[in-house]
Amino acid sequence: MPFWSFFCCGRCSDWKEQRRKDSNSWRIFSLKELQSATNNFNYDNKLGEGGFGSVYWGQLWDGSQVVGTALGVRDCDLQLLWLVENLGNVRWCSLVPCEKACSGRKAVIAVKRLKVWSNSEQEEFAAKVETLGRVKHKNLLSFRGYCAEGQEHLILYDYMPNLSLQSHLHGYSSDECLLDWGRRMSIAIGTAEGITHLHQQATPIIHQDIKASNVLLDSGFLARVADFGFVKLIPDGANHLTTNAKSALGYLTPEYIKSGKASESCDVYSFGILLLELVSGKRPIDKNLSIIDWALPLVKERKYREVADARLNGDYIEEELKRVVIVALNCAEKTPEKRPKMPEVTSLLKGASEEKLSSLENEMFKTKPLVSYQGTSTPVEISEDVLQEQTALKK
């Protein structure tokens, strides 16, 4: 019997039981269960809202770690449990008294409530979630559970205690400077390996939403790429330009802006922007200047040190910094055909083929600057890519 037929014939409980037997890490939740966990999706439980839907915090009584971790914080009377996450460009934060998280066998969870779907699309949604749920890799944040009842479609994940890359680069954790150079290299390579795994599936999965807020960090700062395949879960006819425009600004390829058609090469481009963001600490677009247009003139003058995040205080390996920057700019080539494939990107980040890296660097010095500068830091006009993105996203 097909997976989705359980929804049609009313044997949902039988299916849940079978899935529990098949995998200890997967679970189908009832709407009633998640309504109870989130206080009926109460506004006070709402953590944020983005292009794909809203996120709520909640608590489950069974203490299961399939959807989150009950954080065992001591001295509960003196501490608060912070739940901080990024959804799109929305940074959300909720204070939850620790006594709630520590009492009994409760587990703190985050529930992503997707945009409304029609009942006729329920089987399609369930089948797509099941397919994406089978994709496993140490650098991917796999689905841990979901609910599909009527027009309600919700997805649950593991809780990542070190939040997202976005929060450490630009959010409330940025002042703590927890991302030393070793962690940044680990995040770069781990994210590349996660995306590579998606592209190497029998039917390649195009992420379509690679950005700092979708790179989550576990307790050891291991990168876990989140929300992969999410575009498959939204109704037909929707894309970045209609659902997630603001948060995607700076990560979109020129060809996607023009056509709306995604490809593996689009993921490579977005990853290149992410790499520059990771090593420099700058946002993809700052004061109408794209991070590419800011970095390329410095690289042409071999001023790699000026690309490095000032918060590193010079504590990095220069050859690794140079390698990451060159790979990033190669990934972010305007022409799709010039971009490398993700397996090659991963290999280069790990230090393979110094000859190839040298060739890429020499090729960069042959190209013309993307923006006219007075000195090395003051742009005299808005970069062309930024203008194209802003125009497309306003339509």
UniProtKB/TrEMBL annotation:
Chief location category: membrane
Species: Zingiber officinale
Molecular functions (GO terms): ATP binding; protein kinase activity
Protein's recorded name: Protein kinase domain-containing protein
Listed InterPro entries: Kinase-like_dom_sf, Prot_kinase_dom, Ser-Thr/Tyr_kinase_cat_dom, Ser/Thr_kinase_AS
Family listed: In the C-terminal section; belongs to the protein kinase superfamily. Ser/Thr protein kinase family.
Domain named Protein kinase: residues: 41-357
Alphabetized UniProt keyword annotations: ATP-binding, Cell membrane, Glycoprotein, Membrane, Nucleotide-binding, Receptor, Signal, Transmembrane, Transmembrane helix
GO biological process: defense response to oomycetes
Keyword rRNA-binding listed: no
Lipid bilayer topology: Single-pass type I membrane protein
Pfam families from the UniProt entry: PK_Tyr_Ser-Thr (PF07714)
Keyword Mitochondrion: no
Gene Ontology CC, one term: plasma membrane
Compartments where found: Cell membrane
Spans traversing the lipid bilayer: none
